[in-house]
Request: fold
Amino acid sequence: MTAIKFSINKACIILFALLLLLSISMIALLYLLTGNAHVIWCGLLFSVLMLFCVMLFVATLRKKLTAFSNRLCCLLDDMLTGEMEPPQTSEEENLFYKINHRLARLYEVMQENRRSITKERMDLQELISDISHQVKTPIANLKTVNTTLLEQSIPEEKQKGFLTACDGQLDKLDFLMQAMIKTSRLETGIISLEMKAQPIYDTLAAALGGILLNAERKHIAVEVDCKEDLTVSHDRKWTSEALFNILDNAIKYTPENGNIHVSVADWEMYLKIDITDTGKGISENHQGAIFKRFYREDEVHDTPGIGIGLYLAREIITLQGGYIKVISEASRGSTFSVFLPHKQVIFKCHGFVRIERKQQDLS
Reply:
């Protein structure tokens, strides 16, 4: 069965006709009951006044509804195009004010979603650009070596050299992919942190174990000043990863016969780990950018690396409620200070990690 749809004009006409029919019926009934002409005239006058008031009310209401619907359509069009915000009104609490208030909230949500989508799109474009830039050179080198091996007759000794070069490029690609996986897990929050109070000495020893061989090759002296009983709540695996990345950078950019000094201090609210090197240092203009993903200064492009170590280190420490500070001067070495809070609470929900610091007991 097809439903009958009435427009506002048809509804007004039908209402007026029903009221007119009701008035005529009332006047006829009064005439039958009283037979008095004055009563009939009074009833007729009352009916006319009532119909006039109803018509005036319906016309005013229709005018307001039409104006409101036009204003609402224009407002929605502007909200969709993002050209203007919903106007704020100081009207009293009524139906129009309620709708306008909720439209304002809807617009705020739409704008926030639009900004979030734009930021995610820009981050994705930047990430794709960074990855393509990082893999371009290894892939080009691999193609060159592969073409040479296929098209030319090369002695076995030279073939081994080419294969060794390929192995180095594959290691670089593998390192890049592993770094991107770690970065993705950190940025999306899908990571399991096993936070517990444990000695920082063992964590620091694990990080130092990964750089000692390179330090020996460059004759770099590594000194460590850390008490074995110092404990702090942290995730050993990921904190060791962060410290290793900072130490690895110190080894890369410290010349031969240099020095690296690691010291740990126990403060009231934080445990502080200082990593000081005698390397090339970082100019003040670049200190704000060294923690960006894939950032590398122009003068160090010949040094192996992809510029993601410090970015990962900062993300790992920040995720545990701490922070990293750097003090450096060009040609005078650098000091990276890692601060880990003593007391913190970890909340896990739907695979995401949220860390809040407990209030210190001042009693």
Remarks:
- Residues 8-84 form one domain.
- Residues 95-151 form the longest helix (57 residues).
